[in-house]
Design brief:
Layout: E1 2-9, H1 22-28, E2 29-32, H2 35-40, H3 46-57, E3 60-68, H4 77-94, E4 99-104, H5 116-128, E5 134-138, H6 146-150, E6 154-157, H7 166-181, E7 187-194, H8 209-222, E8 228-232, E9 245-252, H9 255-271, E10 281-282, H10 283-291, E11 297-301, H11 316-323, E12 333-338, H12 340-349, E13 354-359, E14 371-386, E15 396-407, E16 410-415, H13 425-429, E17 439-442, H14 448-452, E18 458-463
Parallel strand pairs: 1-3, 1-4, 4-5, 5-6, 10-18, 11-17, 11-18, 12-16, 12-17
Antiparallel strand pairs: 2-3, 7-9, 8-9, 13-14, 14-15, 15-16
Helix pairs in contact: 3-7, 4-5
Bound molecules: zinc ion (ZN).
């Protein structure tokens, strides 16, 4: 049995005005054909999970492409045409195949199409025809559309946020596809949707209302009532039509049952919509509390979250550290900034040199101005490494050329490209041990908690400015379908 396998993922953020081009995919990884097998290795992401299941079943994987860009602005038409064009060309060359198995995100938006994942599935369907099963895994922040359901036989979302089950979701998707190919199940998909937008750190599966909702969905799977029940609180920073919370249900040959259960799951979330507010701490207070405590305090710079599509170049935290005089203490503070110009300035100065430079807000000036600082260049390096923390463990990351600037005890990690801040692997890659720090800032709203909970004395989510601001009510939506909770009375 020959199963075509591919991955084409990006999570868009339409509050970022910077389009995502092909170079952003290449900077992270773009693997073609057999490169997929060695390039991803045992990374705990979807494709290796899918491959493991196919191998166990003796099915032959036919590799297409695997690429993942870090979250950012809408993807350019040219980038999608090139990537999807390559995927489809390899698929056509491989025909006939018995099925297609894809790892998608679900919230990719194009400059001219708010449903890129639907477009990808429709294009794949056109190549293979109606008889060949098409299965896809999806991120729990996917923006689910009817077009996606129309062109896929199997859709399976993560159960966990923070996303510690990417590999397992790949496995589940592949297993249902094999069951379908064996004639053991006839998947029927249906969606229930409610137009509401929830703060991501108020909708995790660690605690709170969304944890309970997901437990109910998983119980339906375990009880055999459904093949898969997936909940999508959606990437909230998308100003696009039909934005909302989706429940996606897959039953065995029962479309009516799938529809009824999906609508019930969506209604269950709607009923508790006022319970999702996030726990945000003012930045200045979070820093004061960290400086007053022993051990490591980790603070989420949630407004500038690179995994949510922010550029990672906000200097709001650095500005507050200097305002509170942390640079004149002996307490180590670690933070990152995406600033290729500053990296180059550090490279020109060389290791050990003292430099004065403007840092931050070179990409996005809407939330602040570049900040002039003086520091000593501690480290210069080429920043390719692999994720060490839970969720996407082993996945390749690339921050490009990087430099560490010491501003007193502040360690400012300057990088060329944004990377995931889910764990300390970027700091470790430049020789900074998180356990030695008093303060560590992660440009992430939630996921960073999983890794740091084992080493931090306390963790806060700071209410910081930027295109991933977690205070939903502060965002201005103009293209969404109204009414939309929490903006409109319903
Ligand atoms: Zn997600």
């Amino acid at each position: 049995m020959r199963i075509a396998i591919g991955c084409l993922q990006q999570e868009s953020n339409t509050f970022s005005p910077f389009p995502t081009g092909i170079e952003t995919f290449r900077a992270n990884y773009l693997l073609k054909g057999e490169e997929i097998f060695a390039g991803l290795g045992g990374a705990r992401v979807e494709v290796p999970g899918m491959l493991a299941v196919l191998q166990e079943a003796g099915a032959e994987p036919v590799p297409l492409i695997a690429t993942h860009a870090l979250a950012g602005g809408a993807v350019t038409r040219a980038a999608l045409d090139e990537l999807l064009g390559e995927l489809l060309a390899r698929l056509k060359a491989a025909l006939p195949v018995d099925a297609v198995l894809l790892a998608l995100h679900g919230a990719m938006v194009l400059e001219d199409d708010s449903d890129a994942d639907g477009a990808i599935l429709a294009a794949v369907r056109e190549v293979v025809g109606p008889e060949v099963p098409v299965a896809a895994s999806l991120d729990l922040h996917g923006h689910i559309t009817q077009r996606m359901l129309d062109h896929a036989d199997i859709l399976v979302g993560y159960h966990c946020y923070p996303h510690i089950d990417m590999y397992e979701t790949g496995q589940r998707t592949a297993r249902w596809l094999l069951e379908m190919l064996a004639g053991k199940v006839k998947p029927a998909l249906a969606m229930g949707k409610r137009h509401m937008v929830l703060s991501p750190n108020g909708a995790t599966t660690v605690a709170g209302p969304f944890k309970r909702l997901m437990e109910q969905a998983v119980a339906l799977e375990q009880g055999g009532e459904v093949l898969a029940a997936s909940l999508f609180p959606v990437q909230p920073w998308l100003d696009i039509p039909d934005l909302g919370y989706a429940a996606l249900v897959m039953t065995d040959g029962d479309p009516e049952g799938a529809k009824r259960i999906a609508q019930q799951l969506a209604a269950d979330a709607w009923a508790v919509r006022d319970q999702f507010d996030p726990d945000l701490v003012p930045l200045a207070e979070a820093i004061r509390r960290g400086m007053a405590a022993d051990g490591l305090t980790v603070i989420g710079d949630s407004g500038d979250a690179t995994t949510g599509g922010a550029p990672g170049d906000s200097a709001a935290v650095l500005k507050e550290l200097l305002a509170q005089g942390v640079d004149r203490t002996d307490r180590l503070a670690y933070l990152t900034l995406v600033d290729p110009e500053a990296v180059q300035a550090a490279e020109r100065a060389g290791i050990g040199a003292e430099v004065t430079m403007a840092v931050g807000h070179k990409v996005d000036r809407r939330y602040g101005e570049p900040l002039t600082v003086t520091g000593r260049v501690l480290t210069l390096c080429e920043g390719r490494y692999r994720v060490v923390g839970p969720g996407a463990t082993g996945a390749p990351m690339n921050m490009g050329h990087a430099a560490v600037l010491a501003i007193g005890p502040i360690r400012l990690l300057l990088m060329t490209y944004p990377v995931s801040a889910w764990d300390a692997s970027a700091f470790l890659a430049v020789g900074l041990d998180p356990r030695a720090a008093t303060l560590l800032f992660a440009k992430s709203p939630s996921h960073f908690r999983v890794y740091y909970t084992t080493i931090a004395r306390q963790i806060f989510n700071a209410d910081t400015p930027g295109p991933t601001c977690c205070n939903m009510r502060s965002l201005t939506f103009t293209r969404v379908t109204r009414p939309l909770y929490p903006f409109d009375e319903q």
